[in-house]
Give the backbone structure.
Amino acid sequence: MTDSCIFCRIAKGEIPAGKVYEDDEIVVFRDIHPAAPVHLLMIPREHIENLMTAGSQHETLLGRMIALAPRLAREQGATDGFRIVINNGPDGGQEVYHLHVHVLGGPRPWKRF
Ligand code: 5GP
Ligand code: ZN
């Protein structure tokens, strides 16, 4: 699975991405098609498809990701607030099946979201 997953490959450094943060559990990079002046994607290194397949063992990791968002948003230029979005499954509009948190910010208007 992870060989064919684009976000696993970004996490491993096999595909270049505009990384702005990484630690032993989390990688954050710029969305290739930004929908706002600041548009980051936060992913776990572990391949989890989405919140529907995440389990209680991921609660701490998910909490860390959410708690990291304000700092990275501000550092990247979203100084006046931001939005986080997690798309889950077909009806949630998910395109890449590796859990990711969109962090959107910067002066409005934005293209979508
Ligand atoms: P989803 O619809 O699954 O929530 O969003 C997937 C996001 O990943 C989209 O906003 C898309 O622009 C972004 N994306 C897809 N492939 C790549 C890639 O190879 N590199 C980067 N940086 N972003 C990507
Ligand atoms: Zn993956």
Notes: DSSP finds two helices and five strands in the chain. The chain has a mean pLDDT of 96. Residues 87 and 93 are 6 Å apart (CA to CA).
